[in-house]
Design a protein that fits this description.
Helices cover 11% and strands 29% of the residues. By secondary structure, it is mainly beta. Strand 10 and strand 11 form a beta hairpin. The protein is globular. The structure holds calcium ion (CA) (2 copies). It comes from Marinobacter albus.
């Protein structure tokens, strides 16, 4: 068991002592206790909550669906719902992971606090759970496991295991602020799958071999103790969303495609991987079947796997999941919900919505990817929210994270008129 303490948090709490002397004695004691643990409790009521509730009134959904504010969680990114159904962990691109706690498991969040404040984290975007309750958090260049995360949310320094030490996910010289928001999942083979975005718009030839050996521009898989690292997929530009099909066990993932090729190409991608070592086309293809300018005269690697669903160009498809709940109507069961973060590389912005892709019982695409929840992009092209990830609660409701408003929403369904 590898306990990691952070001197940083201690220094921060000492620096915070002085202004507290001005508060009332009881308040001082309470605040002091908090600062010594490093915990931050996010206030859930007030002006920001009311403003977000106002925005949610204008979100359009199919008949019978409703969206509400579930929790405020600053810069909320990817989410992992605890197997005990009490805590949802939410990553960020800064230093915090938020624990959203539903103490009485009634589908309404009761408390939001930072998780494991004594453990310093760097871009901890990607939390994921193993079925046995071990939480993994994929940071920019490290992976830690928290074996008892869901029951140690009050512990500033919970148990940890080092899965991939700092600096060992990718070589430091390739660390970039581009495309390093990690996501992870534990597969049906009980191994950990982690996406490694490549740092460029289009990768230069000189890096292709090295990146291929490391798994940059791909997805790696490792045993849960960090050993037996393999490159599972290549030819991926920047995947920030993945899930395993519940019956076939195939890995499906979104991929963000090349910028600067015009408003309408190349398409975004949802991919299905059926075997280890498949190649998904990048950088020979910039998205879908569209060749990149840089590689258009080059011979394409054999056996490229094209996306099973193409999405609108530049919408930035991020988190995705196969819906396995029983709250939503039959049409949605087994299908894919995915989040489009919204474009930056398009003259008229597009995205900032939740999409749905039907999938049949055999695990095959059964229709186009269509909008499910939208309205976070106003008529002037201004973002009122930017969805990042989707997650499913035990009751079958759907959570949506938003890193612009710093919130998590909950989508529920009730038969219209009931
Ligand atoms: Ca509750
Ligand atoms: Ca591709």
């Amino acid at each position: 068991m590898n306990k990691i303490a952070s001197a940083f948090c201690m220094a921060a709490s000492i620096a915070a002592l002085h202004p507290l002397a001005l508060a009332q004695p009881n308040d001082t004691l309470k605040a002091l206790a908090k600062s010594q643990t490093g915990f931050k409790i996010i206030e859930q009521q007030g002006e920001q909550a009311r403003a977000i509730q106002g925005i949610l009134k204008n979100i359009s959904l199919p008949d019978g669906f409703a969206i509400t504010l579930y929790a405020l969680a600053p810069r909320a990114r990817h989410m992992a719902v605890g197997p005990r159904g009490m805590v949802t962990f939410v990553g960020t691109l800064k230093s915090e992971v938020w624990a959203i706690i539903d103490h009485d498991r009634n589908g309404i969040a009761d408390e939001v606090r930072n998780f494991a404040p004594f453990i310093e984290k760097s871009m901890p975007n990607g939390p994921c759970f193993a079925p046995d309750g071990v939480l993994y958090i994929a940071e920019q260049n490290r992976v830690l496991a928290y074996p008892r995360a869901e029951i140690q949310i009050q512990d500033a320094n919970p148990e940890t295991l080092e899965v991939i030490p700092a600096g060992a996910l990718i070589p430091e010289k390739f660390v970039s602020s581009n495309h390093t928001a990690r996501v992870c999942d534990v597969g049906p083979d009980n191994r950990l799958y982690i996406s490694l975005g490549q740092p460029y718009n289009v990768t230069q030839r000189e890096y292709l071999n090295t990146f291929g050996e490391i798994g940059i521009g791909g997805i790696i898989r490792i045993s849960r103790d960090g050993t037996d690292r393999e490159v599972y997929a290549l030819g991926i530009r920047n995947s920030v969303g993945q899930d395993f099909h519940p019956t076939t066990g195939d890995l499906w993932f979104t991929d963000n495609q090349v910028d600067g090729m015009g408003d309408d190409i190349p398409p975004g991608e949802i991919n299905q991987q059926t075997a280890m070592g498949q190649h998904f086309g990048f950088p020979w293809f910039g998205g879908g079947h569209v060749r990149t300018n840089e590689y258009k005269d080059e011979e394409v690697p054999g056996g490229v796997v094209f996306p099973v669903s193409e999405t609108v160009a530049h919408a930035a498809d991020l988190g995705m999941l196969f819906y396995q709940g029983d709250m939503f109507p039959d049409h949605y069961r087994g299908g894919i919900f995915s989040a489009q973060h919204g474009s930056w590389n398009r003259s008229v912005p597009i995205g900032a919505r939740i999409m749905f892709t039907p999938v049949d019982a055999q695990g095959r695409i059964a229709g186009d990817t269509e909008p499910f929840a939208e309205g976070w992009l106003d008529e002037n092209g201004k973002y009122l929210g930017r969805p990042v990830d989707v997650a499913q609660l035990k009751d079958g409701s759907l959570l949506v994270s938003d890193d612009l408003t710093g919130a998590v929403y909950r989508i529920t369904y009730a038969v219209p008129g009931s």
